């Protein structure tokens, strides 16, 4: 089976990732406890691409959740599918990146990156034939942009022959959190050009109009 390892980083990445798992679980007939309740064999045909089958027939997402502060993780855990994820796959710090790309890439993020890579290796080793990685993150904040691109470059070093796909939310002036978003995005795009195979660019303003 051609497995995909999913990684979500920062507040935006984790919020989009949580919604992704709600939708994909619904499509595969997996309930919030990881139990299959579908009505078609087709739902189980490719389920191993995104899920590990655990003991008792439970399906556990092949997902890694990272952030530099615990708040978003707590929200995901308290959400409708929060109990679906492996508890070990939540990796977070306590300081936050303060919307600062350099903090995510060089200081706070660099201190946490080895813990994230350990979980990435563990998930990758449990795959029969790893196809690649998909990452949801934003380019405007500190963690998703700075630490997200740091992780992408580290994964690229370790798995140079695997596909790297990112879903990158670009900042928009109309729905802006901070004035430094353009700087964070510019620094991130440079990294993505070097290390990603495919980048799905999402416009933050357009997301509000869905």
Total E-strand runs:
8
User: What pattern of helices and strands is seen along the backbone?
Assistant: EHHEEEHEHHEHEHEH
Summing up helix and strand content along with how strands pair, one would put the structural category as alpha/beta
Uncertain spans? none
Please state the overall shape, judged from the principal axes of the Cα atoms: globular
Strand fraction equals 15-25%
CATH architecture: 3-Layer(aba) Sandwich
Biggest sheet strand order reads 5-4-1-6-7-8
Assembly type: single chain
For the record, what CATH class applies?
Alpha Beta
Question: Number of domains in the coordinates?
Answer: 1
Number of helices: 8
Question: What can be said about the biggest beta sheet?
Answer: 6 strands, parallel
CATH superfamily membership? Tubulin/FtsZ, GTPase domain
What's the CATH topology name? Rossmann fold
Overall pLDDT:
94
Tell me roughly what share of residues is in helical segments. 40-55%
Distance between the termini: 34 Å
Task: Annotate the secondary structure layout.
Elements: E1 2-9, H1 10-28, H2 42-45, E2 51-53, E3 59-61, E4 63-67, H3 71-78, E5 90-92, H4 101-105, H5 108-125, E6 129-138, H6 143-158, E7 163-170, H7 181-195, E8 198-203, H8 204-208
Parallel strand pairs: 1-4, 1-6, 4-5, 6-7, 7-8
Antiparallel strand pairs: 2-3
Helix pairs in contact: 1-6, 5-6, 6-7
């Amino acid at each position: 089976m051609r497995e995909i390892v999913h990684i979500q980083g920062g507040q935006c990445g984790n919020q989009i990732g949580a919604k992704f798992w709600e939708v994909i679980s619904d499509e595969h007939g997996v309930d919030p406890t990881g139990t299959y309740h579908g009505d078609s064999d087709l739902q189980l045909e490719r389920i191993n691409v995104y899920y590990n089958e655990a003991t008792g027939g439970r399906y556990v997402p092949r997902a890694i959740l990272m952030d530099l502060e615990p708040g978003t993780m707590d929200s995901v855990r308290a959400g409708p599918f929060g109990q679906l994820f492996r508890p070990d796959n939540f990796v977070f710090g306590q300081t936050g990146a303060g919307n600062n790309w350099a903090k995510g890439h060089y200081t706070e993020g660099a201190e946490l990156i080895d813990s994230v890579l350990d979980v990435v290796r563990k998930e990758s080793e449990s795959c029969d034939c790893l196809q690649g990685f998909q990452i949801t993150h934003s380019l405007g904040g500190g963690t998703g942009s700075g630490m997200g691109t740091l992780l992408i470059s580290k994964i690229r070093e370790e798995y140079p022959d695997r596909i790297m796909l990112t879903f990158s939310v670009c900042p928009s002036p109309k729905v802006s959190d901070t004035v430094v978003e353009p700087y964070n995005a510019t620094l991130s795009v440079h990294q993505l050009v070097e290390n990603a195979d495919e980048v799905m660019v999402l416009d933050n303003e357009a997301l509000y109009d869905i």
